[in-house]
C-alpha cells in the first residue's frame, strides 16, 4: 500500500479553488492503493512561455511505433531509490536519484526503452518531455503491459491499441490554443479515483508523463498533465482544458481499466 499526495498540473476548470480527495486501487503484479488530494487550479498559477529545463545528461525518447509491439516492459522500483546514469556506469552529472515512492507519494514506475545486459534505458517522469536515462536492472522489478494509447489532438480522439488492433476509442476535450496539450511520447505513471466523481476531475484520473509547455506550475502541481473525467461533458469534442485531456465519466471509467502504470501514451497533433 502506498499513501501520499499527488498534485497534477494543467488540469481542471477556471472555477474557485477546491480540494479533491481520491483513492485508487490498481490491480497489477504489485497491487497498490493511493490516497491523495488535488487542489483545483486557480487563476493565480505561475505561468511561463519558456520553461528552462536542466538536461542533466538525459536523452529524449521518440515513439515506440509504428509497427507497435503487442506488449511493453514497465520497471517498478524495487527499493527506495533508483540512481540515474547517462550511459551504463556513467552517472548523470548531478548524481540524481529517483525516490520511491515519488514526491507525490506514488509508487515509482518507469517505461523500459532498451535492455543491455545488466542495464536498462528507461523513460522517466521528468522534464524535458520524453526524458530517458539508464538504470541498473537490479534496482527494479520488470513486468509487461499489453496496450498503448494514441491521443490525436486535431481529431480530439483517444484510442487504445493492442499492437495494431484498436481496443477502444473515445472523443476527448484537449487543451485550448493558449494552453495546449503537450505532444510527444509518454507513459502512464499514476491512476487515481477522486472521491467526488461530480467534480472537475470526474470519475478517474490517468496521469501520464507529459509536462505543459505553458505552465511551469499549476494548481499546486508541477505542470504535469493527465487524462481525466469531467463535470462538463458538453465540452467533449472541443479544445477546452488547460492542457489535460478530458473524457466523459463513463469513458474514463473504461480507460482506467485499460491503462496500467507503464502504458505508453503518444500524443500527436
Concise account of the structure shown:
The chain is mainly β. The chain folds into two domains: 19-51 and 147-268, Beta Barrel (L,D-transpeptidase catalytic domain-like), CATH 2.40.440.10; 59-145, Roll (SH3 type barrels).
> So, the CATH homologous superfamily of the largest domain?
L,D-transpeptidase catalytic domain-like
Q: What is the total domain count?
A: 2
Number of helices: 1
Sketch the major β-sheet.
Answer: 8 strands, mixed
What structural class results from the helix and strand content? mainly beta
The percent range for strand residues is 35-45%
- CATH class membership of the largest domain: Mainly Beta
CATH fold call of the largest domain: L,D-transpeptidase catalytic domain-like
Strand order of the largest sheet: 15-14-13-20-16-17-18-19
Q: Helicity level, as a percent range?
A: under 10%
| Named CATH architecture of the largest domain | Beta Barrel
Number of strands: 20
Order of helices and strands: EEEEEEEEEEEEEEEEEEEHE
So what's the overall shape?
A: globular
Mean pLDDT: 84
Amino acid at each position: 500500500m502506498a499513501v501520499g499526495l499527488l498534485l497534477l498540473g494543467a488540469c481542471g476548470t477556471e472555477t474557485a479553488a477546491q480540494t479533491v480527495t481520491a483513492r485508487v486501487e490498481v490491480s497489477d503484479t504489485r497491487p497498490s492503493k493511493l490516497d491523495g488530494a488535488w487542489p483545483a487550479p486557480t487563476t493565480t498559477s505561475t505561468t511561463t512561455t519558456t520553461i528552462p529545463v536542466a538536461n542533466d545528461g538525459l536523452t529524449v525518447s521518440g515513439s515506440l511505433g509504428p509497427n507497435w509491439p503487442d506488449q511493453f516492459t514497465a520497471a517498478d522500483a524495487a527499493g527506495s531509490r533508483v540512481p540515474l546514469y547517462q550511459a551504463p556506469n556513467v552517472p548523470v552529472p548531478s548524481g540524481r536519484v529517483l525516490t520511491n515512492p515519488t514526491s507525490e507519494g506514488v509508487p515509482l514506475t518507469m517505461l523500459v526503452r532498451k535492455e543491455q545486459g545488466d542495464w536498462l534505458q528507461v523513460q522517466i517522469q521528468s522534464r524535458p518531455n520524453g526524458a530517458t536515462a539508464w538504470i541498473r536492472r537490479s534496482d527494479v522489478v520488470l513486468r509487461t503491459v499489453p496496450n498503448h494509447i494514441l491521443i490525436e489532438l486535431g481529431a480530439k480522439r483517444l484510442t487504445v491499441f493492442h499492437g495494431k488492433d484498436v481496443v477502444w476509442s473515445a472523443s476527448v476535450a484537449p487543451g485550448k490554443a493558449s494552453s495546449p496539450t503537450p505532444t510527444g511520447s509518454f507513459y502512464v505513471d499514476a491512476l487515481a479515483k477522486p472521491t467526488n466523481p461530480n467534480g472537475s476531475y470526474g470519475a478517474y484520473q490517468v496521469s501520464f508523463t507529459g509536462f505543459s509547455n505553458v505552465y511551469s506550475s499549476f494548481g499546486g502541481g508541477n505542470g504535469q498533465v493527465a487524462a481525466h473525467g469531467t463535470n462538463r461533458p458538453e465540452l467533449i469534442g472541443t479544445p477546452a482544458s488547460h492542457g489535460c485531456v478530458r473524457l466523459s465519466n463513463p469513458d474514463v471509467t473504461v480507460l482506467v481499466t485499460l491503462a496500467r502504470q507503464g502504458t505508453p501514451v503518444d500524443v500527436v497533433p
